[in-house]
Amino acid sequence: MLRSWYLLCCLWALHLSGAGEAAAANREIDTAHYRERVKSMFYHAYNNYLENAFPYDELRPLTCDGQDTWGSFSLTLIDALDTLLILGNVSEFQRVVNVLQEGVDFDIDVNASVFETNIRVVGGLLSAHLLSKKAGVEVEAGWPCSGPLLRMAEEAARKLLPAFQTPTGMPYGTVNLLHGVNPGETPVTCTAGIGTFIVEFATLSHLTGDLVFEDVARKALKALWKNRSDIGLVGNHIDVVTAKWVAQDAGIGAGVDSYFEYLVKGAILLHDEELMSMFLDYNKAIRNYTKFDDWYLWVQMYKGTVSMPVFQSLEAYWPGLQSLIGDINNAMQTFLNYYTVWKQFGGLPEFYNIPQGYTVEKREGYPLRPELIESAMYLYRATRDPTLLELGRDAVESIEKISKVECGFATIKDLRDHRLDNRMESFFLAETVKYLYLLFDPNNFIHNDGSAFDVVPMPYGECILGAGGYVFNTEAHPIDPAALYCCRKQKEEQWEVEDLMREFFFQKKSKKSTFKRTADHGGRESQTASADASSESSRGEMNPEKNTKRRISLLSCPNQPFTSKLSVLGQVFLDNT
């Protein structure tokens, strides 16, 4: 049972009902109507991608063609896959799974963003893998601990590992998928590009049994923690070789954002008190030095003096993150500030000058980002405040009115005059549409409160999946936290090695005698010959002719005496003692 206090905060924030406000909200906003509007938005964008842009990464909606942007992965298809299931399209989910298996190749000579490849490709494939059975895909034996999408995610993640081979453990920002890190690659990486791996990489380690992924992600997180300033803040960009801060602006927005997000979500996913403690310490420093009247400014990381009095659209994830730790009141106050900016422009400009109350030059665009909608979805689950549905309604109306074109939805280049840009980012289908749909769909399986679940038989016991509590990565790909505890490969491999050791020993000695172990008073195990094959140690050693492979349910966490654990090594080196 998940008993950690921070997980309880998460479940409380996601599923707490507001006192009598749900009915009022539904009367004011026709959620079924807007749910269908959102679904239509998705298919207008998705179908145009398939018709005009696939297999390129992204759609160019003004010219009705495609372009590769983040590595030539058919990225929009990967990013949209779990959204298909959330919208209820099982048949298209199944078709796309087959298309990806046949068409995506990571063994290519391409320079790829380590950060973007992780959150979009690795995260998208992991989420789709864990949702495959629910989508009616015929899964292979051993799922969710094996499967083609899991192998694809692992392959993609391994291509990123060379980036972590630095003196500090903090990764380079770019890696060549075929050759590794280029010799001339810059060592300067943004904070988010270092601290946004624990959700995907820990999931990979738990499902595959290979600890390298979680290990490098943790090392990178702790390196940032180690290099925080004396007042508890981190900057925006750091040299991953020397650990020297290159950009010393501290805030919650671009370049830093998902580092804080992954401390909280990693803590929830892994029941990790250390990660939560790190975030809570950061949170104190952020409140002390960057918060002014429910806005968050940018400050100098060592002095705490204001360096940029601006609000960035990427910061709008913060109220949703606050809701995950139960800080609902502060979350709502900040959300309402951000919502006033949306109302002013019909979207969130990339930069907004707070004292002047207007956009910042050359930062007037809105690329259909999801962050404010994401926060609305989390907060609505926690409060049922109808204001949050109003934001969803306004978002649908604005995006359709300003951004919709014949071949999809275009980035808004300037919110002042509604000029458009020829790009539709993959996160529009992965995040923006998904969070809108979930805001208007209170009965979606993603919102499961644990009252329904699936029981999956495993070689080592039964596994409970689909019970809710999904943890979204920063690209809105939901990870089922229960799946991380279905795969006890590390323990199973340990037992298999020990079985092989015993088999080797008994094959070698069976012609001479059989053995039993007795513990001497020093806690060591002595070995004596015996003609009686029934003499067995407390570990249950048997005559090799009768020995059958032991099956232990790894979900029962078997515990061995210390001397019994050492006995295996004693067998291996018996001839030399």
What is the quaternary state of this protein?
Answer: single chain
Mean pLDDT: 86
3D shape: globular
Task: Outline the low-pLDDT stretches.
Answer: 1-26, 511-577
Output the strand order for the largest sheet: 5-6-7
Q: For the terminal residues, how far apart are their CA atoms?
A: 46 Å
* Main sheet: strands, sense, barrel: 3 strands, antiparallel
Helix content: 40-55%
Number of continuous helical runs: 18
Q: Indicate the proportion of strand residues.
A: 5-15%
Number of β-strand runs = 25
Provide a short characterization of the protein structure.
The protein has a three-stranded antiparallel sheet with strand order 5-6-7, with no helix packed on it.
